[in-house]
Design goal:
With 199 residues, this protein is of the alpha+beta class. The protein is built from 7 helices and 5 strands. It has a 5-stranded mixed beta sheet, sandwiched between helices. Helix 1 runs antiparallel to helix 5 and helix 2 (24-31) crosses helix 6.
């Protein structure tokens, strides 16, 4: 797998999600330094509360359901060679010797895995591999608004390659300060906190 050159800039999976929503988020946040004021958004705040609640309630239940040998909670990891850092809700050690990230989502399961959620799991997998030296071939999402429905997501070498390419694209915007093309999904502009300054 190709890694990025050493530079002091580090990115979080949340920044990657913003980039996937619209590449211009990175320009406004990282180049112009304009915050998105997410503390005012209900779903963000409620999601954080649910994270805390579920981690307390479901510790024994999920361990049994997924066949997990060991669980670590709120694990902060960094992978300097990929310019990546982040906190993982749970790091799981599985019976087959592999490891896996588990992420809680304050969302409903709608029979569809969104690209952003998948990419976030892949980035967490990258962090785990870098720090634990164990293979990560899958991750888990828990949809808290669908009675804690658990979805297992396979992670392939191609997924890791794509994730590194996305990190490279975000670093290019951050380092060189150019205004990228906006998302082609116009409906996303309606709910964008930067819509009044995006030309």
């Amino acid at each position: 797998m190709e890694s990025l050159n050493h530079e002091p800039v580090t990115l979080t999976p949340s920044e990657v999600l913003e980039y996937l929503f619209c590449p211009r988020y990175i320009y406004f946040m990282n180049v112009l330094g304009i915050p998105q004021r997410e503390e005012k958004r209900y779903k963000v705040l409620r999601g954080r509360e649910v994270h805390r609640e579920k981690q307390i309630r479901n510790r024994a239940y999920l361990r049994k359901k997924l066949g997990v040998l060991k669980r670590e909670f709120n694990v902060y990891l960094s992978a300097p060679r990929h310019h990546l850092r982040g906190q993982i809700d749970e790091v799981l050690t599985l019976a087959d010797g592999s490891m896996a990230p588990l992420d809680y989502k304050f969302a409903e399961w709608k029979e569809r895995l969104y690209r952003g959620y998948r990419t976030q799991l892949v980035l967490y997998g990258l962090l785990i591999q870098e720090n634990y030296g164990k293979p990560v071939n899958r991750g888990f999402l828990v949809y808290t608004r669908s009675q804690n429905h658990v979805v297992a997501v396979e992670i392939t070498p191609q997924d890791y390659k794509k994730a590194v390419e996305i990190l490279r694209a975000i670093l290019d915007i951050t380092r060189h300060g150019f205004l990228p093309r906006r998302t082609t999904a116009k409906n996303r502009c309606l709910d964008c906190c930067y819509k009044n300054i995006c030309v």
